[in-house]
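ok so heres the complex, two chains, lmk if somethin looks off
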Amino acid sequence: QVQLVQSGAEVRKPGASVTVSCKASGYKFTSRDMHWVRQAAGQGLEWMGWINPESGATGSSPEFYDRVTLTRDTSIRTAYMELRNLRPDDTAVYYCARQVSGMDYWGQGTLVTVSS
Amino acid sequence: IQMTQSPSTLSAFVGDRVTVTCRASQRIDQWLAWYQEKPGKAPSLLIYEASTLQSGVSSRFSGRGSGAEFTLTISGLQPDDSATYFCQQYDAYPYTFGQGTKLEIK
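and the predicted structre for the whole thing:
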């Protein structure tokens, strides 16, 4: 069965960086784009960007384009999201999600807390 | 593309039928998905391409619309339908979500 398993919760100080990983199983990793979405407590869903695992091509929201880097390692079927220059309002749960038509499988979420 | 959902909250009884509306700021053809989210859980895909039911999702959920106006209807409400529902367009980057509709079952 398809599974996306994300790395564990992180705490960072403002100005630091964080990398969240997303390990895929149960399907051909390179066959589907992977997207990243975040959700601050009590807030809505915010799309961050995508990566094509086969080509490595990426795209990101203008809200993040200068702070986010999306990468993947096909040998271990894992996608990564790095967010730099963290601010307190980056505190949120970060999700990876497989895109088919709509996002049909999601990771369990990774809480990133940014606090001094 | 801005996605505007209404209402933001909804309260209904078990057995009722409710409808949530999502409007896009420009035409998105049929490239719209609906998700259900429960506290502490990742969102779950209900409907894609505006009206196609995701495998394993109850037929009590249905979607309609194309262009810029879409609806999600839930029939025969069950207590387990208590959740927040989001629409999302995937016609153009950046993908965008509606602000969500919180459904309370009385």
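quick notes: Chain A is about 0% helix and 50% strand. thats all i got rn
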